[in-house]
Amino acid sequence: MKYARLTKEQFEELHQEFINFLASQSITADEWEDIKINKPQTAEEELDVFSDLVWEGVLNQAKFLEHFSPQQIYLFKITEAAMYLIAIKVENTAIDVTTREGYDWLQKNLLDDSVSLYTSSKAISDDRNKDIFALIQQGAAITKGELYGFFEKHLEL
């Protein structure tokens, strides 16, 4: 397995897609029930293969990621060749940007001495999707990039 198995909730959401996946392998509903009972290892492998296929599709489409922690925000823009980072750090530990109040404070105080903005970039490795997945496992979420675009304009990158 290259990524991670989907959760029970994710499998439930993708129920029809999983049925189509099994059908593409000529596995009927009855055969799937038999596999789950009599060949649990094969069933596990099928779940893993399907999970990887779903992750590949999602990661192929990912262009922006965001990761929030109490005093930092990491915004990523991912292209085929590079990953760009805009990092916002709040030195004031009384401010928690993961809360509505802390985020509102940040919006009003971007030029405050306790706020630092950093940028960085790095080349994408041979496995772009694995790079993205590693960030997701660390807590990043795939987004449409609106926040990245806001800061990109203000930093004139």
UniProtKB/TrEMBL annotation:
InterPro entries: DUF6495
The protein's name: Histidyl-tRNA synthetase
